Amino acid sequence: LQYWYGWGRKPIWMDKPRCSSGLRVLNKYKIIKKSGLEAAFFLPKSGMPYTIIIPIHNEEANIPALLKGLEFYAKNHEILIIDDGSKDGSYELLSKCSFIQFVRFEQNSGKGVAVRKGLDMATYEQIIIFDGDMELDPAEISKLMILDKNSCIDI
Hints:
The protein is an alpha/beta fold. It is 16% helix and 30% strand. An 8-stranded mixed sheet has the order 3-4-5-10-9-6-7-8. A two-stranded antiparallel ribbon has the order 1-2. A hairpin with a 6-residue loop joins strand 1 (3-5) and strand 2. It starts with a strand and ends in a 7-residue tail after the last strand. The relative contact order is 0.20.
């Protein structure tokens, strides 16, 4: 297992849990507390099915590599891609893919709305939210923490 520390887009990964200001680790859950808010994250277990939610907006150039990287996960997990009003060719590329569930907003409503739609649609209680911009390699998805849908999610 790996543990995540930090609040930015570039988390720090460590092999052992530790406590620091504003962060507590409890058993298989990590409770992150900042500005009076808490979020509980479930650490991944092998073999556990989860939903991968991917909000996208005008990511036509990244979609072929994204789908290729996600194909491995489609066998055991649910993949939800929420197109937040893209005006490029994202819709055409995604609509041809058979191993994803795909929702398209006609107008851009913002990433938060797209993520909430994915949370509402998710089949599994364990969830990973992943960006479609390919900042992270899809091969790294299994190393990320999984959000527990039953802990501190307000849809």
